[in-house]
Design a protein that fits this description.
It is a single chain. The chain is built from six helices and 20 strands. By secondary structure, the chain is mainly beta. A hairpin with a 4-residue loop joins strand 3 (about 60) and strand 4 (about 65-70). The longest helix has 16 residues, at about 340-355. The protein has one domain (about 1-355): Thrombin, subunit H. The protein has helices spanning about 1-5, 120-130, 215-220, 240-245, 255-260, 340-355; strands at about 15-20, 30-40, 60, 65-70, 85-90, 95, 135-140, 150-155, 160-170, 175, 190-195, 210-215, 235, 250, 260-265, 280-290, 290-295, 305-310, 315-325, 335. The strands form two sheets. It has a six-stranded antiparallel barrel with strand order 15-16-17-20-19-18. A six-stranded antiparallel barrel has the order 8-9-10-13-12-11.
Length: about 350
């Protein structure tokens, strides 16, 4: 039923995008902040050929980091140099990627679907598929709104290409998990990040590279024992993809609102065609704190960074970011919750990134 409802929205030319922040601490008093962004026109792709991919070899699963990768086996990540200048503020850690001129005819860097060894799939699914049967659904038309705002990410760590997911929340902004942007084990960030919204198999309608990244400063702190509460970041792209394909807003829900809401997790799990096919599932939020939410929704590595989103009357909002499988013994997968403080912080990050040149 969810997919049938969403497919009806493909006939809409304009989509209203709203940032609606309900004050978590004072939800019973119905106090809120509202930030409205204009809708954006989405281009259709009828009859348009989609771009082909380039192959990667050696697809595998990094047990230590619980992430899928391509290329060299990442026994140890060693970057030859620190490629990105660092800018630190009170509320953020900002990295800016160097600009590299490339030929327009150069093939796109994207992944090739390959088989995963069955023993790796079994190990992964023990942690992330919550019941005996995988309940996720493949999205058959990821090029149309609202599906096309969800993207596949490839992070280059010096020959090891990790994969993740993210969601457009502005013309040039992607919300994702901080652990896609910063590796706490090696204290390093990727050499580059590519974002492929609406990717389907070996073809993709769009691609953009990260121009700057920003993530929660506490996530980088080695003394922080509660990093899961702060596993949140934003990417600024070098192309305004959201202007053509649309994007989601942000929304903060009180506990009572969340209890009555069906939530969705949509992204690119590595156990489906090596992370090249979009999967989605909806379900209830079973447990929550002010910083986290836990849900009965199946996921797999590669979906880390997927926006946890809701749909209300053809308006779409991200309420959190998926980040973890069932590694706490609760029988639930989990993500970082957008409370009012974090939502304001994400909005501030977007404004700060706009000012940095």
């Amino acid at each position: 039923m969810m997919q049938n409802t969403l497919k009806k929205t493909l006939s809409f030319t304009y989509v209203g995008i709203f940032f609606c922040f309900s004050d978590y601490a004072q939800a019973m008093e119905d106090k809120s902040e509202s930030f409205e962004l204009h809708g954006v026109k989405k281009r259709r792709h009828e009859g348009e050929s989609l771009l082909e991919s380039r192959s990667f070899d050696n697809f595998g699963y990094d047990k230590a980091r619980k992430m899928f990768y391509y290329g060299n086996e990442p026994s140890t990540i060693r970057l030859e140099s620190a490629p990105l200048p660092l800018i630190e503020t009170d509320n953020s850690v900002v990295y800016g990627f160097p600009k590299i001129e490339k030929s327009e005819s150069e093939p796109l860097l994207i992944v090739k679907a390959q088989a995963i060894p069955i023993n790796q799939i079994g190990e992964i699914l023990k942690e992330t598929v919550l019941h005996n049967q995988d309940r996720r659904e493949l999205v058959d038309d990821p090029h149309g709104y609202p599906w096309c705002v969800h993207g596949h990410m490839v992070m280059d760590y010096g020959g090891s290409y990790y994969i993740g997911s993210g969601t457009l929340i502005g013309e040039k902004y992607v919300i994702t998990a901080a652990h896609n942007l910063y590796d706490r084990k090696s204290c390093s960030i990727p050499l580059s990040i590519k974002f492929y919204p609406g990717m389907m198999g070996r073809k993709t309608p769009y691609v953009s590279e990260a121009e700057r990244i920003i993530f929660h400063p506490r996530y980088k702190d080695p003394r922080n024992g509660q990093v899961k509460d702060d596993d949140l970041g934003v990417i600024k792209l070098n192309k305004p993809l959201g202007k053509e394909i649309g994007y989601f807003g942000l929304k903060v829900l009180s506990d009572g609102q969340l209890d009555d809401m069906t939530i969705n997790v949509t992204g690119y799990p590595g156990d489906y065609a090596s992370g090249t096919l979009m999967c989605t599932m909806e379900g209830p939020a079973k447990l929550k704190t002010s910083e986290r939410m836990y849900y009965d929704i199946d996921t797999a590595p590669g979906q880390s960074g997927s926006g946890i989103w809701i749909s209300e009357k053809d308006e779409y909002g991200v309420i959190g970011v998926h980040a973890y499988g069932d590694d706490e013994g609760k029988g639930l997968n989990s993500g970082t919750r957008l409370n009012l403080t974090k939502a304001r912080l994400v909005k501030q990050w977007m404004e700060d990134l706009d000012l940095i040149h």
